[in-house]
Amino acid sequence: MTTASAAPDKAVQAIEQAEAAWLVALTEGEEAMTALMLDDSRAVHGPVGKIDDARTFAHFTWTRRRHVFAKAEQLSITVRGNTAITTCLQEMHIVFDENLPPFPVQEAVTRVWEETAEGWRLAHMHQAKRMPPV
């Protein structure tokens, strides 16, 4: 993990926990994802940069790209007040067809988290596909 700001350890640890919760939510479904997102959050994803609101993104992700495994590497965290920016390489194994094994997909991901009374919530996310390493 790399931190680019002089954020308190407590804030960095809270963001690390939010990031870990997000990876778990990807494998648990729409409700788990939307619970971690602000109502007005946006996600930029797909090969043409589709922009979705929280509910549309969570529904698409769960019904069209069901994740059975997710992990992140090279997590970088920058905290500025009540806002945190994270970047990572995220690998997911996705079921596109129930008759085929899960397909590995890797993305470079940037997430913007906002601190709320309920904890850190996802305000914005941008995902860019990468070819998995050989």
From TrEMBL:
Membrane-spanning ranges: none
Gene3D superfamilies given in the database record: 3.10.450.50
Boundaries of every SnoaL-like domain copy: 15-127
One matching Pfam family: SnoaL_3
Protein name: SnoaL-like domain-containing protein
Lineage, top ranks: Bacteria, Bacillati, Actinomycetota, Actinomycetes, Kitasatosporales
